[in-house]
Specification:
22 helices; 4% strand; single chain; mainly alpha; elongated
Amino acid sequence: MATVGIDLLSSGKRCLHRSTAVSSRACLPITLSTTAHSNSTIRRKGLAINQRLVHRLGLLAALAATWILVIVRVQPWPFSDYMVFLAVARRLSAGDRLYEEIWDNKDPFVYYSLAALQDLGQPALWAFEVMWLVIAGACVFGIARHFMLSRNWAVFVGGVLTPITLISYHYFPGTTHLPGVSLTLLTLLFVLQSRYTWGGVTLGLLFFFKLSMLPLALIAIGVVVVSRRSLHSLIRMSLATLMVLAVSIVVLALRDELIPYLGSLSHNFTYSQTNAGSGETGIAAAMGERLSVLSDAHVLIALVTLVSVLGYSWLRDVPRQLWLLSASTFAGGLILTVAIGKFPHHAQVFGVSATLALVAFVLALGDFRAKAILAAALGLLISLGLAGGPSTQGYRNAVLNPQGTWQAMTTTDAATRDLLSSGPPRSFAVLQGAGIPRSAGLEDWDLACRHIAQRPWESDRLLNESLECFPRAEVLLVPLEQGIPESPVAFNKFLTSVRELVAQNYRCFEGEENLVCERRAPQD
């Protein structure tokens, strides 16, 4: 009986071979039951494998679609601020000193990098823009894995949701906020991984790429260091940062750009406190500008979405350190916007907290992540909200390319052609509103006045600097048609004086897109 009991609990095969007391008919039900169980297990394993395969194929499709759109969307084209960046970089290649002989208010490594890449052509500048998004996405992936998000979801958040969020409604190719966000996230990732030396290096780079975003990196570092109670780790990080700062300062000093750079920092503070519409300074003028930024419809969408995600994550079981990082960098972004924000695209400082909030949000979904399609769709909706809504016009223009982006970036611009057609190399200056020469070919020309894009809200001192400098230029580029606005008053006075100067001392002819004004000889 003992033998029978053992065999009944065993497989049918063992029953037939080990006991003659039990008939094969008695063993048959057990054999069929075991076979059915095995088949069911195989089917379940097969379904699980198929489901994983479908999820991975879906993830690959999402990554491919996202990055095709990203690569097309971020193609650099000569518009607004980016055109000025390219023009400054071109003058650096011609040997001019930054801030001293050619001036703009961005940080030096922005211009150095463009100057190093622009002669390699449009593909190099394009790849440079994509690189910042790749860095940001990789950092978010690493941060997500640090906080124990599964690999596939970390890839989805870093590779799909992050670029969608960072290419916000007010994004434009060449914006300096993207390097700032990427370097801040990279610094945070190194600190989370206890790689403090590398974190110090990237912090030093951030100083010269996007100084205004340095406080966000310091806030994030503070949250991690305080929670770990490891203040000694700051020593290594500080030494690495000081090393990068020292090398960078030496480079600026050797190029005779250090003192002008420090002067530009002072100017940037004054600029941030000057109302772009009225040219007025003071708390009332500055606060009016800040309110216009924060009340922008797309900025509001992003902020409401971010606050909602932070609230939802707080109520769920997410790592407290991650939530604190998201919330503290959000608070830091608000403070920065209130302190120095001037235009809606300055709200891109919230990109740091938005990407961290994405990680917290997906972690907070918990078991709902098992419903992969619904969870992914919800994450996509949140990322679009954090972007302030999709810039459909921006994507449409990038895809259809009505601006002739490739042609505009790979052919000589009209302002450069106007100067080249006016005669042999001489000194030149540019009046606000005229085309900004940004192409190769003017290396033998001397830029007489360092300001190539005078802004309406600039101070009397800066506007007068250009006004006093213009008579030294043998050729002056002037817009074909330019009205003189009544305000700001200082800018009205500046343009009126320039018009009188041109009428008295210059002889003008129409170029392709500008008036090319040549200084009269004394006998004229």
